[in-house]
Structures are given as C-alpha cells and as structure tokens.
UniProtKB/TrEMBL annotation:
Full protein name: ATP-dependent 6-phosphofructokinase
Residue numbers annotated as active site: 126 (proton acceptor)
Intracellular or extracellular location(s): Cytoplasm
Lineage of the organism: Bacteria, Bacillati, Mycoplasmatota, Mollicutes, Acholeplasmatales
Location of the Phosphofructokinase domain: 2-274
Summary of subunit composition and partner proteins: Homotetramer.
Cofactor or coenzyme needed: Mg(2+)
GO cellular component, one term: 6-phosphofructokinase complex
Assigned protein family: Belongs to the phosphofructokinase type A (PFKA) family. ATP-dependent PFK group I subfamily. Prokaryotic clade 'B1' sub-subfamily.
Residues noted as binding ATP in the record, renumbered to the chain: 10, 71-72, 101-104
Known EC number: 2.7.1.11
C-alpha cells in the first residue's frame, strides 16, 4: 500500500515520534510512506515527500513536527476536499493518517465520507479529544507548565505575591487542572470550573492574614483578562499579584517519555488499523489499551471529565 501521513492544527511534542512510528511500521510491513507538508495545505498543493526509515532517524526526541502544520479553514468546503482526494488518488495513495486535534479530525472525517481511507491520531497539547484518555503532547506541555509554576512560586514566596498563571487548553481545562494539582495551586480556574471571584478574593485575604507567603492560581486561557484579575487581587486581598501568560512555550520542547511511548504506540497501531481496512476511525488510549472509535462520534462529543476534577476540591 501507499500510505500518506500529515500533521495538522497546533503542533504538539511527540508528533515526530508518531510520524516515525508510522514510517517504520509501514516500511516493516512492506508499504511505501509519504509525508504531506504543512497539513491539509500540502494535500491541496500536492506537496508530498517520500519518507524512508532514515528520514525519521533522530525524530523520536525532536519537538514540533518535521512535516510542518497549518490550520486550513477552507478545508470545510467539499470542492476543496475533492482537490485533496484528486491529489491523493493521482499519486496512487491508498490511505491517509491525520495526526491532530478535534478540528483536524473534521477534515479526516470528511475525506472518509468522500470514500478515502482515513485514520486519525490524537495530537494536541489540549487533551480535549473524546475517545482517548490522553493526546500526544499533553504530558510534555504539562511538564513545561509545572516547571514554570515551580519557578514562579520561588519568586512569589520571596515577594509575598499571588501569581496567576494562564495556560493553554482552549475550551478544555485539563492542562490547568493537572498542572494546578502538580504545582500545588490554591485555585484552578477552568471552563469546567469557572471563577467565583468573591470566594477567590476572600480566601486570598484569609491566606494573607494567616501570613502565607505565596498563592498560586492556574487559569485556562480565553476566560478573562488575567492582568485585570491580578490588579483586582492586589487592591482587595492584601497580596500583591502578578499574572504570567505562558503562551507558545507550552507547545515546544522535546517530548517527555509518556509522549514518546504514546506516539510510538499510536503511530504503529494506526498503520495496522489501515492494513485491516479500518477507515473513519481514530486511535485512542483507554485504560492503557489502544482502541479505535468512529471519528463521527469523536467530533460531536466533548471529552469526558475524569476524577481529578473532584480531587481538586479535596486537596487544594
Ligand atoms: O490547540 C492547541 C493550542 O495551542 C490551544 O491550546 C490554543 O488555544 C491554540 O492552539 C492556539 O492556536 P494558534 O497556534 O492558531 O494561535
């Protein structure tokens, strides 16, 4: 078979490890593997490269994505999707593996519905994909955030400050939740657990009166202006407060061990699924077992929330 692979949406550490596993597993089974450059853009511009085992050497530990990525909004339109199918079929490609998040899966589902064999692998730092406990890149971003919280606590304690740390995640609070637990945050504010400002300020005031030297608040992005919240805390709680927006640093860096293993397992499994004729499905990990679920279900479900959302109420 000829199998193509692309990465799409926000890059995530471990995408390269997944590409490597696709290439090496595919070649081991006697297939030809092609990389599509810059996500769906490369499908539209007929930008493919053959990938050999040597081409992915050294990629296991490399951050970013060696194939490039893009967000291609026009890929929602059927005539645009048809261009992609033409380019794939003209090259004799039999199947496509899409590594990305929710938005990327919509494109993969569309190609499957147009009759092209397509499989998804969840690659996004947000961990917001239904049908999998973890997405590739989540653990690396989490470690980056925890490292930042530890550093911010040092300076907050020294100055008796309240530090607000805004993290990525879009509509998913998993990065904030997991990082907040690992970093011992006093408050974790996520889309699933939104701000209660009166309670926040009164608790901070109490902590300040008790003589505590620091307070840490971890917030999922896109909810409110963290700098304004810091200003309000400074006026009302007794703590002086500063906000830090971690931004794109969370997407970079060498993948941690969990992401290298997850990406290797999922990349290899995706090739085996393709060989079995599976299409319109995506790979997931559930209770440490690899599974596939229909893309049509995944894109229509918000991710189920785990027990950590309850844990945080008890141990903060
Ligand atoms: O989906 C990954 C992510 O990093 C989100 O956490 C964030 O909201 C978004 O991508 C940023 O996207 P862009 O790279 O298009 O600015």
């Amino acid at each position: 078979m000829k199998i193509a692979v692309l990465t799409s949406g926000g890059d995530a550490p471990g995408m390269n490890a997944a590409i490597r596993a696709v290439v090496r597993t595919g070649i081991a089974f006697g297939h030809e593997i092609f990389g599509v450059l810059d996500g769906y853009r490369g499908l539209l511009e007929d930008n493919f490269i053959p990938l050999t085992s040597k081409d992915v050497s050294g990629m296991l530990s490399a951050g970013g994505t060696m194939l490039g990525t893009a967000r291609v909004t026009e890929f929602k339109e059927v005539p645009v999707q048809m261009v992609a199918i033409d380019n794939l079929t003209n090259r004799g490609i039999d199947a496509l593996i899409v590594i990305g998040g929710d938005g990327s899966y919509r494109g993969a589902l569309a190609l499957h519905e147009l009759g092209f064999q397509t499989i998804g692998i969840p690659g996004t730092i947000d961990n917001d994909v239904y049908g999998t406990d973890f997405t590739i890149g989540f653990h690396t971003a989490l470690n980056t955030i925890v490292d930042a919280i530890d550093k911010l606590r040092d300076t907050s304690s020294s100055h008796r400050r309240c530090s607000i740390i805004e993290v990525m995640g879009r509509t998913s609070g998993d990065l904030a939740l997991y990082a907040g637990i690992c970093g011992g945050a006093e408050f974790i504010i996520t889309p699933e657990n939104p701000i209660n400002k009166d309670k926040l300020i009164s608790t901070l005031k109490k902590h300040n009166d008790e003589g505590r030297r620091h307070a840490i608040i971890v917030v999922t992005e896109q909810q409110f202006d963290v700098h304004k919240l810091a200003a309000e805390i400074s006026i009302k709680s007794g703590f002086s407060s500063r906000a830090t927006v971690l931004g794109y640093i969370q997407r970079g860096g060498r993948p941690v061990a969990e992401d290298r293993i997850l990406a290797s397992r999922m990349g290899s499994y995706a090739v085996e699924a393709i060989m079995q004729g599976v299409s319109g499905e995506c790979i997931g990990i559930k209770n440490d077992k690899l599974v596939t679920s229909p893309l049509a279900d995944i894109v229509n479900h918000p991710k189920e929330r785990g027990e950590l959302y309850d844990l945080v109420q008890k141990i903060r």
